[in-house]
Amino acid sequence: METEICASLAGSFDAVCVEDLNLKGMAGGLHLGKGVHDNGYGLFLSMLEYKLEERGKYLIKVDRYFASSKICSVCGKKKEELSLADRIYYCECGNRMDRDVNAAVNIMNEGKRIFAECA
Ligand SMILES: [Zn+2]
Fold first, then answer.
1. What residues have their beta carbon closer than 5 A to ion ligand 1?
2. Phi and psi at residue 89, in whole multiples of 5°?
3. 38 Cβ contact partners less than 8 Å away, ≥ 6 residues apart
4. Per-residue confidence (pLDDT) for residue 23, from 0 to 100
């Protein structure tokens, strides 16, 4: 199933931006989980990268410590506090968005920035 998801993503997009893993943290046995099972996620990323590269496309990894959840994807303002219980991101600028969608937009924007630097 993961293979199909990877193939579908690689077929649909020229570049995919993802949050990276902290392999050192994993090796040290630290639980830095953000609700993601790192091992399975790592395998998923490897497979996705392979499928993208096969088609001459890109996997762009954003540092996992990039504050993707805390930044408003509309105005760029950063919240000091955001609990995991806060499922909706509210900002003073009027932005009201699903927390994960807001984080995904930030990861995409950061990925574009990194990509532009490398190009
Ligand atoms: Zn905002």
1. 72, 74-75, 77, 91, 93, 95
2. -90, 120
3. 21, 26, 32
4. 55
100: CB partners within 8 A, 6+ apart: none
* Residue 108 Cα to ligand 1 middle (Å): 17
- Domain limits, the chain: 1-63, 66-119
In order, the DSSP letters of 42-68 are HHHHHHHHHHHHHTT-EEEEEPTTS-T
Please determine, for residue 26, whether its predicted confidence score (pLDDT) is greater than 80.
no
The first and second tokens of residue 98, run together, are: 């699903």
Whole-number Å distance, alpha carbon 68 to ligand 1 midpoint, is: 13
SS3 34: coil
CA–CA separation, 105 and 103 (whole Å): 5
> Is 59 exposed, middle or buried, given 0-12, 13-18 or 19+ CB atoms closer than 10 A?
buried
Percent of the chain surpassing pLDDT 70: 84
